[in-house]
Amino acid sequence: MDEFYEMNQAHIIGVEDAAFGFDLSVLYAEQYNGQEIGSIQVINGTEQERHAYENCDFETLKRVMKTYEEQYFGWKDRNIFERQWVLRDFRKTVGSSADEAYTRIKAMEAGKGVLSTGDYALLKALSG
Fold first, then answer.
1. What is the DSSP string of 29-84?
2. What domain of life is recorded for the organism (predicted)?
C-alpha cells in the first residue's frame, strides 16, 4: 500500500483541498452536470478559468466571429436532418449548443475581446 501512495503522491490532495474541491463542484454543478468527477479534477478545471477577464486580440476575435457566423448560418440553412446532425455533433465536441456559443461570441465581440468565465474554454474548443 505504501508503494501505491508513493507512486501517486502527485495526485493525492489533503482533506481541506478535497473539501474545497467538493464545494467547487457544488458551485459549478451546472458545468459538471451529471459527470462523475473528483475534487482534484474540479480544482484543476477551475485553474483553467484563471483566463477569465483577460483580453484576447480583438482583430483575431473578429476573424473568429466572421468564420463562426458563416458556419452558423450555413448550418441553419441545411435540411432538418443535416442540421440536427451537425448541431448535435457541435454540442458533443464543444460542450455547448451552437446558439449558446454564438451568443457568447457576440458578447465577446461587444466586450471588445474581454474574456469572461468560460470564454477561453469556448475559444479553445472552437479552435480544436
1. TTTTTT----HHHHHHHHHHGGGTT-B--HHHHHHHHHHHHHHHHHHHTS-HHHHH
2. Bacteria
Name the residue range of residue 23's domain: 2-48
Check whether residue 44 and residue 12 sit in a common domain.
yes
Q: Which of 49, 53, 47 is nearest to 115 (CA)?
A: 53
109 lies in some domain:
yes
At residue 74, the pLDDT reads 93
pLDDT at 127: 75
Beta bridge partner(s), residue 114: 55
What pTM was estimated for this model as a whole? 0.56
Domain tally for the chain?
A: 2
Cα angle: 68, vertex 122, 90; to 5 degrees: 60
Handedness of CA 37, 40, 10, 117 (dihedral sign): positive
Nearest CA to 38 out of 16, 15, 22 is that of 22
